[in-house]
Amino acid sequence: MVKMTYVEASREAVREMMHADKTVWCVGEDLGRGSVFGQYLGLQEEFGPDRVADTPISEAAIMGSAFGAAMVGTRPIVEMRFSDFALCATDELVNQIAKARFMFGGQSRAPMVIRKPIGLWRSSAAQHSQSLESWYVHIPGLVVVCPATPQDNYSMMKAAIKCDDPVVYLEHKNIWQMEGEVDKSLEVTLGSAAIRRSGDDVTLVSWSDTANKCTKVADKLAAQGVSAEVIDLRSLWPWDKQAVLASVRKTGRLVVAHESVAVGGFGAEVVATVAEQAGDALRGPLRRLGAPRSLVAYAPNLEDQVRVTEDMIEQAALETLGKSAT
Which residues are catalytic? Predict the structure, then answer.
């Protein structure tokens, strides 16, 4: 076990995979200086500018050139800096990369990791704060993952690089410096959830940084005599339906929480699936928490109005039990 931050864990995973596989390389803006959050610090010095390649400011060119390189046998890691900026390359991702295997009858593929940092980061305002994971889940051909811990940012990065399909890799900007123990021998399968806490009274389902909030809420609920099971989906596509359904059949109650906008959010998919396939096991109301359909303000007091907080998750969990917060 090694203690690492969230950003160090992903950087070490990339480094190890670049040593293990000469076809793995990185491409994006300012990678030579480590990129915005230090994800690539020292990698260009170690592997050279051909494998850690700096590019002009053109997301469409970055994504398109990496796609071509993937189709001829390499495994690019594409850095988009912010998920918001990646929208400039949406056509390349959605209409080309996601459809390549299908359009070419399986004769070609696009094994790529597309890194798009997501989430609220203090006073980053409307163009730097979005969480758009539900957009990419909607697109056939894309794998979508949202690691929430240093361990998962290490293990899932390795799994994503090995994947033969394009992986939209969504890291939360607010937890780059989160520290945790990392077991380098631990391997994960994309599509498997993690049970962060076991419990019998209510199921809390989440992903990304909100999963960390749910874990803290479970500790608060335990002090009130409520046993909460916390499921961190980690992968939104494929997603671990069986883990969620098994938990809800045990607890009879469900709260889904996510930072992204509630309208059309992936939480609705989880709630609908539970209602359809485990509705007979429910003993309390289904609850779904997400941000309002509002732009994120620069002002901290206004930004806080769109946050899903620990208090909100705690209250929703107690409401499924017919209780109120103490």
Answer: 128
Residues 72, 220: Cα–Cα separation, whole Å: 52
Alpha helices in the chain (DSSP H): 6-20, 43-47, 59-71, 90-91, 100-103, 133-137, 150-162, 208-222, 241-251, 266-278, 300-303, 310-320
Q: Which long-range contacts (CB under 8 A, 24 or more apart) does 18-21 make?
A: 18/43, 18/47, 18/51, 21/75, 21/161
Could you give the 3-state DSSP secondary structure of residue 126?
Answer: coil
* 112 within 8 A of 164, measured Cβ to Cβ: no
Mean pLDDT (10-residue bins), the chain, 326 residues:
97 98 97 94 97 97 97 97 94 97 92 97 89 97 98 98 98 97 97 97 98 98 97 98 98 98 97 97 97 94 94 97 80
Is it true that the peptide bond before 140 is cis, omega within 30 degrees of 0? no
Amino acid occupying residue 321? L
Hey, what domains does the chain have and what are their CATH numbers? 2-182 (3.40.50.970), 194-320 (3.40.50.920)
pLDDT at 23: 98
- Secondary structure of 228-242 as H, E, C letters: EEEEECCEEECCCHH
Whole-model pTM? 0.95
